[in-house]
Design goal:
By secondary structure, the protein is mainly α. It has 6 helices and 4 strands. The protein binds a DNA duplex (13 and 13 nucleotides) through helix 2, helix 3 and strand 2.
Length: 111
DNA sequence: TGAATGACTCGAT
DNA sequence: GATCGAGCCATTC
């Protein structure tokens, strides 16, 4: 039973992140109600592999903009390449202009 | 059933 | 200002 509603909500939210933008675990966790469930968001990403439709987990980084989850992709560089292909500049596993690229669901989906 | 783990975050030193 | 430790919550062993 690795598919709780929490995962579904996380995936649904991540899928709404527009290309070229990124989001953080903490923001997602907070938006879903439990600001302290950031680790569960990471869990959801772990399970999201092979999901359909695909979950753009590469657009989710930690609060510092670091690609902390790149090791869980097929290839460590895959996450960075996916982001760069969408226009996100990645340097040393960190998203450049992170503040500008940040996509906050609490603001973007408030309308 | 209890203990350990994890793609995180915050507060204290 | 940087580093260390504890908390959180669902899943797994």
């Amino acid at each position: 039973m690795a598919e709780s509603d929490f995962y579904q909500n996380v995936w649904a939210l991540v899928r709404q992140i527009p290309p070229g933008r990124v989001c953080t675990y903490g923001f997602i966790a907070r938006y879903l109600g439990s600001g302290r469930s950031s680790r569960l968001v990471g869990w959801a990403m772990n399970v999201s592999h092979g999901q359909t439709p695909e979950v753009p987990a590469h657009r989710v980084v930690n609060r510092l903009g670091m690609l902390s989850g790149k090791a869980h992709f097929g290839h460590p560089n895959q996450m960075q390449e996916l982001l760069e292909s969408e226009g996100v500049v990645v340097l040393d596993d960190c998203v450049q202009d992170f503040q500008a690229r940040l996509w906050d669901p609490a603001i973007e989906l408030r309308y």
